Amino acid sequence: MSTETENSSGMGSVIAALGANVLVAISKFIGFAISGSSAMMNESIHSVVDCGNQILLLFGDKRAKAETSELHPFGEARAKYFFSTIVAMMLFFGGGALGVIEAVEKLTHPAHEISNTWLVIAILIFGLVVESTSLRVAFKEIAELNVEQQPLFKFLRESRHSEVLIIFTEDSCAVVGLLLALAGTVLSHVTGNAFWDAFSGLLIGLLLMAAAIFLAKEFYSLLVGESATKADLAKIKSSFSRPEVDKLIDLKTVHLGPTDILVAAKIDVADDFDAKTFDLINDIESQIRTKLAGYKTYIYIETDTFDENYQAKS
């Protein structure tokens, strides 16, 4: 895809996020143990979930680098999408559901109190600083991949790098969640009513569940198989625009992984060049690979005679 480069695989933000979340999770659990804060409990769950997220993404990245085999002739690059889907549904949604359950229990528990409020606030601010740093790393990774300088959300929707989307969503949720927890803690302290702490915990849980649903929708499309982007399709088609090719009869592309593309084409070669078909196909393949530098590209081109009634088989 044209928005991604060979030198950046999107995993730098995963490693940065893992380091940040381990540090923040420890501080949050200490804060929860001392204060009994519902929002802090939800934030602790959030950080543990995030750590599990990054470990799964790193494992998925390792599987995606597996060599081709008889069982997997195109390799296992799409493993990243599988593990990203697990992260989105089992961990994001599961973590959010646990947070909602905990918050509802606190909302209905008359004895719910918060102690050591200032310590909780200090830990939340510390977490906010660390998570903001991790989010900046994610933004830097996106800037390296987004070579066409697309608007942020357009890039995220079109990118085939699932780990970039999930880390950006995760870090964004972490920052928003910490702000919600901070607001709930401060309001509870000022008003003397622990309702605000529990309510902010409920919002954090719902935020995680909403993020899971959004990510699952995106990863479903990637797992099923998305074509190359419009920009990359234009580059591929331009390789067939030459006098030797009378007609590009059919062209299909699919991402086998973030940087793995399958290209299948059927062309009608001009009569004068029938004897040079072998060299022509090799030259087209070479041009496609040059224009899609940074990808592992599988290309299959066959020749045929164009028929106006031709319909590509589904």
From TrEMBL:
Domain annotation Cation efflux protein transmembrane: ranges: 14-224
**What protein does this entry describe?**
Cation transporter
Keywords noted in UniProt: Membrane, Transmembrane, Transmembrane helix, Transport
One record GO biological process: zinc ion transport
GO CC terms, sorted: membrane
**Membrane topology term:** Multi-pass membrane protein
Matching entries from InterPro entries are given as: Cation_efflux, Cation_efflux_TM, Cation_efflux_TMD_sf, SLC30A9
On the tree of life, the source organism's domain of life is Bacteria
Q: Does the keyword Disulfide bond apply?
A: no
Query: Which GO terms fall under molecular function for this chain's record?
Result: monoatomic cation transmembrane transporter activity
Signal peptide range: none
Keyword Transport assigned: yes
